[in-house]
Write a structure and sequence with these properties.
heterodimer; A: alpha+beta; Sufe protein. Chain: A; three-stranded antiparallel sheet; 5 helices; 3 strands; elongated; B: alpha/beta; Aspartate Aminotransferase, domain 2; Aspartate Aminotransferase, domain 1; 2 domains; seven-stranded mixed sheet; four-stranded antiparallel sheet; about 15% strand
Chain lengths: ~130, ~425
């Protein structure tokens, strides 16, 4: 399958690979996909609760080259954005940027899900904090 | 005169990329085969069916000679039992449908197994739509068929059993000799898709009581587009209903002008296999084990898919690299041509049906890579591939959340994954 140069570049030099402390209240973790389907993405964000800005983002992905590139790109895009802005990111933007072939569109959907899931996790933690406080 | 330092330089320079390690898919044509074929394109170009001039005689003579060589390769009594086809897919179709259609008054039941090539499985599926009953035997976790399961499946309606010699994906060799004893005793015809194993693992149609066998030139360093079907002529005689109508070539079983150049190449390839095959088996197994030992020495959590020796094709190494998806792996070793059982590499987006039939979990099927080692590979190539694979599996596992979770002691099966 012929992939775009941008996709291959992200696959070969993925940005923001790593792990954040999921016990930290300012960290949101999204784990989406399934091993049986051939792709699992874990995307994490560290958010400044005051500004709601995503100060750090990390990922690890089990999946094909498109899945790895999609999650790498996603972390790159959401860093420095507010949670609100990141939540509005659409998979079609990833499809466009990486020029994903039709059979690989689900990789971009998974990346969007991972972002939303990480944000939901962060928000839930914050809510618990407020309830406690 | 060449000094030793020059030789050393030659040796390192000799590694040419990309490296071909997909010899279960097809093989390059041996240059000796090409040499044998060339005169038959331009000089001896006659139609083997032209009975009235030397051009036809020359072609016919060579074709008959080729039948004898190919018969010898598989232990057949006579070249008359060799029918030339366009390849193994046609041979499988002709054997299965040809027998079924000829003997349909005698019975309507066929036995095969779940890990056969699609040329067999799709032929039997078509027969099912025509009203035949087909039993698809299970295999064990090494992809082996139990001969006693074959015996148990035979009914008074059974006309044919079709089991492959060696599996194209996982390299498992089937117990052909044991199954042949049973089918002969039960008076049921036995077809073997011998494409992958012939010349590589013991195969002899007489000793193993095989009645029909499919083979193809391009898996044995011959050209693509030419194959053969062995059809037993006596004890018992096998008859077929032709699938292609026309000039009545190949004793009425397969019409169509013979691919004389292809057949000449097939013969040359078969002759090389007869002369050098035995020594080559040792070389292939040596390279396969070199790769295997290096991988297992450096990486954890590897699984060998398929049976081990002596029931394994000497050139096939199929490995699941747990926690690393197959297509990503292939991208990481893009200078090495291999194949994968991962869904992402198949048109159907389904993981390998062979691995699934063996009971391999879907998640493990996604991580499988097939290395197919052949005549023209070298130890230097194997070393290069081993080093590359080891470093890339390391890189991709560092990227894999599953590997991290595994290392933390989390049971991945205990997690409620969301299928998508």
């Amino acid at each position: 399958m012929a992939y775009s140069d941008k996709l291959i570049e992200h696959y070969e030099n993925p940005r923001n690979v790593g792990t954040l402390d999921k016990g930290d209240d300012t960290v949101g973790t999204g784990l989406v996909g399934a091993p049986a389907c051939g792709d699992v993405m874990r995307l994490q964000i560290r958010v400044n609760p005051e500004t709601q800005i995503i100060e750090d983002a990390k990922f690890k992905t089990f999946g094909c080259g498109s899945a790895i590139a999609s999650s790498s790109l996603a972390t790159e895009w959401i860093k420095g954005k507010t949670v609100e802005e990141a939540n509005a990111l659409k998979n079609t933007q990833i499809v466009e940027e990486l020029n994903l072939p039709p059979v690989k569109i689900h990789c971009s959907v998974l990346a969007e899900d991972a972002i939303k899931s990480a944000i939901a996790d962060f928000r839930e933690k914050q809510k618990k904090q407020e309830d406690k406080g | 005169m060449r000094g030793s330092s020059v030789n050393l330089l030659d040796k390192t320079m000799a590694l040419k990329l990309p490296i071909y390690l997909d010899n279960n898919a097809t093989t390059p044509v041996d240059p000796r085969v090409v040499d044998a074929m060339l005169p038959y394109f331009t000089e001896h170009f006659g139609n083997a069916a032209s009975r009235n001039h030397p051009f036809g005689w020359k072609a016919e003579e060579k074709v008959e000679e080729a039948r004898e060589t190919i018969a010898k390769l598989i232990g057949a009594k006579s070249g008359k039992e060799i029918i030339f086809t366009s390849g193994a897919t046609e041979s499988d179709n002709l054997a299965i449908k040809g027998v079924a259609h000829f003997y349909k008054e005698k019975g309507n039941h066929i036995i095969t197994c779940k890990t056969e090539h699609k040329a067999v499985l799709d032929s039997t599926k078509r027969l099912e739509r025509e009203g035949f009953d087909v039993t698809y035997l299970d295999v064990d976790d090494n992809a082996r068929v139990d001969p006693e399961a074959v015996r148990a499946a035979i009914t008074d309606q059974t006309i044919l059993v079709s089991i492959m010699l060696a599996n194209n994906e996982v390299g498992t060799v089937q117990p052909i000799e044991e199954i042949g004893k049973i089918t002969r005793e039960k008076k049921v015809f036995f077809h073997v898709d011998a494409v992958q194993g012939v010349g590589r693992v013991p195969f002899d149609v007489e000793a193993m009581n095989v009645d029909l066998a499919s083979i193809t030139a391009h898996k044995m360093y011959g050209p693509k587009g030419v194959g053969a079907l062995y059809v037993r002529r006596s004890k018992p005689r096998v008859r077929l209903l032709a699938e292609i109508d026309g000039g009545g070539h190949e004793r009425g079983m397969r019409s169509g002008t013979l691919n004389v150049t292809g057949i000449v190449g097939f013969q040359a390839a078969a002759q090389i296999m007869i002369d050098e095959g035995q020594a080559e088996i040792e070389r292939l197994r040596g390279m396969r084990d070199r790769l295997r030992n290096k991988l297992w020495g450096a990486l954890d959590e590897l699984v060998l898919n398929g049976a081990d020796d002596p029931w394994r094709h000497p050139g096939n190494l199929n490995v699941s690299f747990s926690f690393v998806e197959g297509e990503a792996m292939m991208m990481a070793i893009k200078d090495v041509a291999v194949s994968s059982g991962s869904a992402c590499t198949s048109a159907s987006l389904e993981p390998s049906y062979v691995l699934r039939a063996m009971g391999v979990d879907e998640e493990m099927a996604h991580t499988s890579i097939r290395f197919g080692i052949g005549r023209f590979n070298t130890d230097e190539e194997i070393d290069y591939v081993a080093d590359l694979v080891i470093s890339q599996v390391g890189r991709l596992r560092d990227l894999s959340p599953l590997y991290e979770m595994h290392k933390e002691g989390i049971d991945l099966k205990s997690i409620q994954w969301e299928a998508h």
